[in-house]
Amino acid sequence: WEDQYTLSIRYMVSKGGSEALLQTLVDTARTASPDYDILLPLFRLLAKVGLRDKKFGQKALELEALDVTLILARKNLSHSQNLLHCLWALRVFAASVTTGAMLGINGAMELLFKVITPYTQKRTRIIRAATEVLAALLKSSNRRAVNRGYVTSLLKLHQDWHCHDAANAYVLIRRALLLCLKHIANLGSGREAFLAAQGMEILFSTTENCLDDNDLEPVVSIIIQILRQCYPKSTLPLVTATSAYTFSVPGSIPSETPCVLTEEDFEDDADEEVDKDSDSEDVKEQDDDLETDVNKLTSKPGLDRPEEELMQYEAMCVELSCNFEELESKPGDDLHFEETQDAKHSHIPTVTSPKQHCLNKDQSSWRQESQDTVQTSLLSMVKMGRSTMHPASKKGPGMNAYQNMQSSGLGIDSSGKEIPDIQVSLKQDAWDIDMISCPSISASFSNSARPTETAEVVDKLLQTYPKHLPFHDPHLYMAKSRRTRSVANFKMMAFPDFWGHCPPPSAQSMLERKRGVQRIKIFEDVQRLIQPCDVINKVVFSLDEPWSLQDTASDCLRFSSEFESGNLRKAIQVREREYDLLVNTDVNSSQHQQWFYFKVSGMRAAVPYRFNIINCEKPNSQFNYGMQPTLYSVKEALLGRPTWIRMGYEICYYKNHYRQSAAIAGGASEKCFYTLTFVVTFPHSEDACYLAYHYPYTYTALMTHLDILEKSVNPKQIYFRQEVLCQTLGGNSCPLVTITAMPESSSSDHLEQFRQRPYQVITARVHPGESNSSWVMKGALEFLVSSDPVARLLRENFIFKIIPMLNPDGVINGNHRCSLKGEDLNRQWLSPSAHLQPTIYHAKGLLYYLSRVGRSPRVFCDFHGHSQKKNVFLYGCSIKETLWQAESTVGTSTISEDITYRTLPKILDKLAPAFTMSSCSFLVEKSRASTARVVVWREMGVSRSYTMESSYCGCNQGPYQGLQFGTSELEEMGAMFCLGLLILELKSVSCSHQLLTHAATLLHADEEALDHHLQRRCSSSSSVTSELDDEPPCMEEIDYITDSSSDPEGSFSELDRQIQECAFNKDEGGEEEEGPGQGRKTTP
Ligand SMILES: [Zn+2]
């Protein structure tokens, strides 16, 4: 009936009902002795109509109803029933900003204050109505309230109500009082007055013991908002806003002196900053960003360089001209290699059995390996559909996640014995990785005894090295790290990168968000200000002031990050076991703080440590939706569990009180920062642990991996060529890998088949913080050189050109997004410069070359990581979809478009457990015009040009629903991507007859199961993934709302109810107080 009721009132309003009622009010009130038998029902009607008429305030103002109501209220200060009715009308009038301001000017505020002060529990119904009017009024009249000095009185009232309302019977009065304070706090002078009146202390002390009291929820949530709003803003505790590392870009003018951070006045009313997410593919696109210019969508721009320059890429495609004469030399060998190789090298990234990984012997010695390895084919894994996946059991806070692994056999060597002597080496502190430095660099410290010691320690360590980490070799890693050039000239290696990583035995569930965790953390933050007795505030690590490290006492953690991909800039011990951490901005930049990777040592086991990364930049994070950071324990590694695990609890991500002025931030408005907070209990005392945003994957790890891969393949079968695409600004080689099958023989037929194989081009890691993309790439590479029948078929039919790391410098120096020039390289594809963006320039050049010789790739895909969404998905390019989405119909009918761009994502949706079609998008945005995806699509005419995004977090659909990604899931995605390329080809019209026959034979055995699986995936995915919200509802507001209009300050029905109730009571003739309990019933 509510709807019907509202409708009839709306109808009445449309017919001038409001004006008629207001006019009646004015006429009646202005008579010598107003008739309250008319006025009271009239007020009730006015309030009900007013709630549903948006222009009511304006109408009341014009008809002078404001004045008469105020006069009536003044006259009836001692007549509760009449006063209450006036207050309801005022409440409706005050809802409009203009009339609110007018009421303020006309003395309504003073009147209301007279009603609500001093504290009394008599006439609570009146007090509640008056407080609610006041709150509505203060939205527009807050300045007036500050000038009148009402802040102190409001705080006093809050305290009185808090003390006397032990039964929480008057929660709504208390809430309305706090809303008054909140509106005042929107004003700089209001916050000043609030702080001067000890507002922080008062609100803090009245809330301290009821943070998790359900009855007080409406009160506590406002208090938290006020505390955050009034917390004095300050600059970050850093010397400069720019990176601690600077790199002088060749040929460019060194930037002016870095802007020094000084204390600034942030008391301006600049709270309403716009949270602009600059992350490239991370935001749901706005429609007005869509490219609607048909010419831009359809035209193909000319070369961005002289034609003759393209010839240099001929040397990177020698497969197109090579004669393979050596194939003739030893005809007998082929057979021999084929026999042994088949069972040798069958590593496929799999999430099902990491034990199996461990059983694989050192892959570099494949020639000697026995043939007992169980062969897994990727197809059989598709078939299994991850039915064997079991998430790790839910861990309670404080539990050591490593404990789940104890029984997994990871501490056992390949012969089944426990790894000896580890306990012995653990007792010495010699294993501390601080001492492992690159020999070439430590040579410069030859005066100290360290180099020899170091060598000994490393040797001793390596004797305990488990021989079971596939595709890893610490010796090789150490050798490779010597060639890696960093801006800061890192001397250390991080132990996890050196020692290697083995996936945990089971996938880890997403972390369930603890109720009220954000509020508790914020309260702890405020406590620093109010009760500083336990605050230490000691800098224990700083790249800017390394000397301050000298006197680090033993009772604090030790930090370091001066190793590849490390990027901690400063650590401050806040309390005994709480640390504020600041990560470095990207080199030559003053932004992009999100990635972190650092080492911590000197801890005690099993006690909680709180870490706060206080200079994060993005407005929201998957850390609010179940994601945990990753941790690697050196002691665990030496005990045979060299594993990055998801770790940390009480995790949340929220806006903090640090600001950067617009001038320094280089934007139009002040810049805000966000805190990522988490608690860690370490598995061992005096351990060295590494914490990272996501599983690290360094440039040196890539170079090591490529060498091992190259050694692992049988060169008679697999054409694996590793070369240098170009040198980076920082002096590192950017590798280019070519993978295909060797021609069957050097006969002209076979050579012809070899040279005619279509290309597939895959790139990754243009954004250094997206280490997940490297793990996907690792999975793809390992799969492509494996003996899996699918991989063999892929090699026999395609030439893979892979650039696994487009931004080595960024990765090495711990950047999140940029190159050493401080640029997002994925915004440079339109016109890259050979000198400033060499990797992009040459990647584009190679693609140009392929295009010019008529060999554009079947698929181009650039692997990325996504910080806001879950699952894995593709972005592609479609003219028609873009125009449709933009509702632009110009010329769409005449445009013909190859619609096969949707085929690959559809295939992956069926094959890959982590992949979902529902997040894919094929829109071309203006702001993405210079990304790899769009440029390769437009300029090279590759219709299947993609960005593949993998979540940092995990999946909310499919077999992995509710799980965080481990490295195995990411690697599996890489392998599945390759399988997808094969199936895509089988579905294409250009697919060769030969491939179809081969694939038919291969797939036949699995056909039934595969079909079955695909169908199942199809039907289940359509029901599970359809229109799933990207995020589950977060239980708390991520941040306080500065726009107070969106506050639910009492709904229509709430005032309706009050009026209804009162009318009922009035019939009984009594004037009742609002009884205990009534307030609580309506608690939202
Ligand atoms: Zn990216």
UniProtKB/TrEMBL annotation:
Active site: E949 (proton donor/acceptor)
Reaction(s) catalysed by this chain's protein: (L-glutamyl)(n+1)-gamma-L-glutamyl-L-glutamyl-[protein] + H2O = (L-glutamyl)(n)-gamma-L-glutamyl-L-glutamyl-[protein] + L-glutamate; C-terminal L-alpha-aminoacyl-L-glutamyl-L-glutamyl-[tubulin] + H2O = C-terminal L-alpha-aminoacyl-L-glutamyl-[tubulin] + L-glutamate
Residue ranges constituting the Peptidase M14 domain according to the UniProt record: 695-985
Organism (species): Canis lupus familiaris
Subcellular location: Cytoplasm, Cytosol
UniProt name for this protein: tubulin-glutamate carboxypeptidase
Protein's GO biological process: proteolysis
Cofactor(s) the protein needs: Zn(2+)
